Amino acid sequence: DSGVTQTPKHLITATGQRVTLRCSPRSGDLSVYWYQQSLDQGLQFLIQYYNGEERAKGNILERFSAQQFPDLHSELNLSSLELGDSALYFCASSVGPAGGDNEQFFGPGTRLTVL
Amino acid sequence: KNQVEQSPQSLIILEGKNCTLQCNYTVSPFSNLRWYKQDTGRGPVSLTIMTFSENTKSNGRYTATLDADTKQSSLHITASQLSDSASYICVVSSRNNAGNMLTFGGGTRLMVKP
Question: Does the distance separating the beta carbons of B43 and A90 come in below 8 Å?
Fold first, then answer.
């Protein structure tokens, strides 16, 4: 158990809908990262927040947005969902702002299925 | 463009055998390299981290090597067990004025058979 929690575990929705994925980082970690992993694909970095502010941006679509709240939990919002958005979405956390220098601890993931 | 390539894409070995996974990168400037193990449907877990000055680092039956000159790393698994069946991901970190950036390899999917 990494100490990172994600909810929900599974999510099934229809095209065009909007969903929110939630992540709580390990106690004491200030950085939260979001990743997308499509079937049999590698991890794609989406976005990082550090202490409430956006720190780094990866291949995140305009239909997707995220935020980190004062209690450090984070939410990833996916809107106008398409079939291709079906994937595992992982959240990771680390102590500091530098994603490479600090070990990232990954949550169990949210499996999103868009029908 | 920063890239990390892993080989082979997939590998099947018998329990008890050894294997070596490869990672070649073109990331610059290099900061560090991590190997992660990802069980199917679960989040990755860090196995080792290697900085520029380190050549070899072990974690139990896992031994990672780094050749910063040729920009290659390997992960050697000794006396494989069924529980080693997973994807192994090489992640290279670079740091520049824009901040810290991670480049992920596509992973090697290892299957250990009894």
Answer: yes
Decide if pLDDT at B99 tops 80.
no
**Is there a contact between B101 and A99 if contact means CB atoms under 8 Å apart?**
yes
Binary contact (A103, B105; C-beta < 8 A): no
Q: Which residues of chain A lie closer than 8 angstroms to B107, CB-CB?
A: 42
Of A15-19, A96-100, B13-17, B41-45, which range is least confident?
A: A96-100
Q: Cα dist. A15→A83, A88, B33 in Å?
A: 6, 17, 38
Q: How far apart are CA A36 and CA A85, in angstroms?
A: 9
Q: How confident is the model at residue B101 (pLDDT cuts 50, 70, 90)?
A: confident
For chain B, which residues lie within 8 Å of any Cβ of chain A, measuring from their own Cβ?
A: 31-32, 34, 41-46, 49, 89, 93-95, 99-102, 104-107
Chain mean pLDDT for chain B? 92
Mean pLDDT of residues grouped by 10 in chain A (115 residues)? 94 97 96 90 89 90 96 97 96 84 89 96
Cβ neighbour number for residue A83 with a 10 Å cutoff: 9
